[in-house]
Amino acid sequence: MLLGVVYLVAGIAFGALAGGSASIQMRTAWRLAAWLTSAAAFVAHIWDEQFRLRNSTFATAMHAALGAALGAFALAVAANLHAQWAASGNRRLLALALALWPALTAVPAFLVALGVAAGLARTRRSEEHTPAMGP
Prior knowledge:
This protein has four helices and no strands. By secondary structure, it is mostly helical.
């Protein structure tokens, strides 16, 4: 759940910074910063699930995908609220976003997390089976 909040804050904060940019280059830089921040949070989540919590590959991928989907849902809620306050936007499409954004985020997030977690699990297993060097 914490990662969903991280994705929401990153999306809103970097979106506001990008929206206030004076140049296309700065807007692009802020959007890239948002993407990199979210990617770092996603990888940190997978690493935490694998090495600290020692969850299975499937559980790790599910938890990471659920965090990403929660963040997407929170951003869809924020977009709907913004459209209400600004009296703009297509309300029907924004209502659809409440279901579509989490689904469109969760599926690829699950697949990426599954691959990354499988690689980390393999690394973890090889480290556990490596004999310790004596003094």
